[in-house]
Design brief:
The protein is of the alpha/beta class. It has 3 domains: 3-40 and 217-292 and 402-438, FAD/NAD(P)-binding domain (3-Layer(bba) Sandwich); 111-199, protoporphyrinogen ix oxidase, domain 3; 297-395, Protoporphyrinogen oxidase, mitochondrial, domain 2 (Polyamine Oxidase, Chain A, domain 2), CATH 3.90.660.20. Helices cover 32% and strands 25% of the residues. It contains 16 helices and 21 strands. It has helices at residues 11-22, 62-70, 102-107, 113-120, 136-144, 146-161, 170-173, 175-184, 187-194, 214-223, 284-289, 334-337, 366-381, 406-419, 428-431, 435-438, and strands at 3-7, 26-30, 42-45, 48-51, 57-61, 78-79, 87-91, 94-97, 200-208, 227-229, 232-240, 243-250, 255-260, 262-265, 276-278, 297-305, 317-319, 328-332, 346-354, 389-395, 423-425. β1, α1 and β2 form a beta-alpha-beta unit. It is globular and about 70 Å long. The structure holds flavin-adenine dinucleotide (FAD). Flavin-adenine dinucleotide binds at residues 7-13, 30-33, 38-40, 53-57, 233-234, 266-268, 271, 274-275, 297, 395, 398-399, 427-428, 433-435, 438.
Length: 443
Amino acid sequence: MNKTCILGSGICGLSAAWEKERKGRKVTIIDSTKRVGGVVESEESEGFLMDYGPNTLSLRLRKTAGMLEECGVLEHAIDANPKANKRFIVRKGKLVALPQGIGSFITSPFLTCSGKLRLLLEPFLFKGKDSDHESVADFITRRLGKEALEYLANPFLAGIYAAKPETLCMRHTFPSIHALEKKYRSLLLGKMFGFEKSNRLPKTRLISFPSGLGELATRMKMAIKGNFILDHTVTQVAGENGKWRVFAHDSTGAEWEDLFDEVICTLPSHQLGKVRWENVAQTENISTLQEAPHFPLSIVYQGFDKKDVSHPLDGFGFLVPEIEKMDILGSLFSSTLFPNRAPADKVLVSTFVGGERNPELSQEKEALIFKKVSQNLSSLLGIRGKPVFQRLRTWQKAIPLPDKDFGKRKSAANDLNSSNRGLVFSGSHLTGPPLPNCLDPLE
Ligand SMILES: Cc1cc2nc3c(=O)[nH]c(=O)nc-3n(C[C@H](O)[C@H](O)[C@H](O)COP(=O)(O)OP(=O)(O)OC[C@H]3O[C@@H](n4cnc5c(N)ncnc54)[C@H](O)[C@@H]3O)c2cc1C
């Protein structure tokens, strides 16, 4: 039985471990923390259940659902409240529901009349020229107009990547939408008539778990028989006669090492420089992998008495376009999304601050961040009283962005993988950050 060592127990590491065990490998998973899941983490405090990393997993592909089903995780999943189909954006300082049908498309003030007419022009436009390196901002402006960029793409990318559409590369951020233009010329026509549906579930499911999304990681861990070496920081990986020796130490400094036939590295790109890579061909490519851009992101969790909030919180949450010049990126109505996120008669709102738009704010003192978030929420949601519960979580390097150099980093990883037999580089900086990508890290 070949021995495989997985570096990192985030969702990429756990998925790689599962995949390798299915192929009959003896798997060891090492992580520097005392728990599995990486940024996927949930915690309950005073009856409020907070997701510190991702809040939802969007299940679109049969392959992802099949994998979660096979490892016995999917049966424990819960679907988001159907109200979550309703999403808001901020326009002129007020929440505006995004249309869910043709009737509300006409009546909703989410875009001006000229902005809506510009959207409807899309099927009549020619295909773009050099679309492989185009930013999301240029792609959206070209196909859907400037207002769609400012009021749709900008807030949505702040919500998904905490980044600006100008930084992200269309081909790598939204490969299936990018492919629609290439194949069918028009996004709308391609979506309506031509899109490849066979690998998709009949209906996208937005899921989490009773104890929060952290349960995804703990349940995946239960499905893996391998050896988990937690609280061990990997310090060195060295080639040795066609095998790979991994060195680590625990939090007391005690050293650990073992020899493996195969090593799969799913460490975050910003941690790769802290590991010594010995007898690795093309080590210069590891420096290229470290160039993945990240921004800091803070999440503020606030609990309120239901009676103190005028807005019914009847949706997924809201996003703030940059042009609205507010301090926050957007909020999730967490206690609407899934059950048991707040005690009875209370609600939980999770607000995102910082990202590429405002990295300085996430470095400010907790009291100032709380104050700014409270001011923004009071005006948008009509909140009267003070929060009855308040927490802050900051990720200094939150999400690796698929920017214009993403392709260069993918090639660097491919070169490393093909020149070092048994050593594989993966992780969300190479798969792309959405969880479904991380659940298929060896693709
Ligand atoms: C705030 C936030 C919100 C998000 N929201 C969503 C969402 O709603 N939906 C969605 O689909 N995606 C979301 N994402 C993205 C998604 O959660 C991540 O892309 C994904 O979980 C990353 O998994 P990973 O395994 O690549 O990395 P990580 O989760 O970062 O795991 C890497 C692991 O490596 C370990 N490690 C690091 N250095 C060492 C070392 N030297 N030795 C040993 N171990 C080490 C770390 O402890 C960690 O456990 C979000 C991400 C963040 C940060």
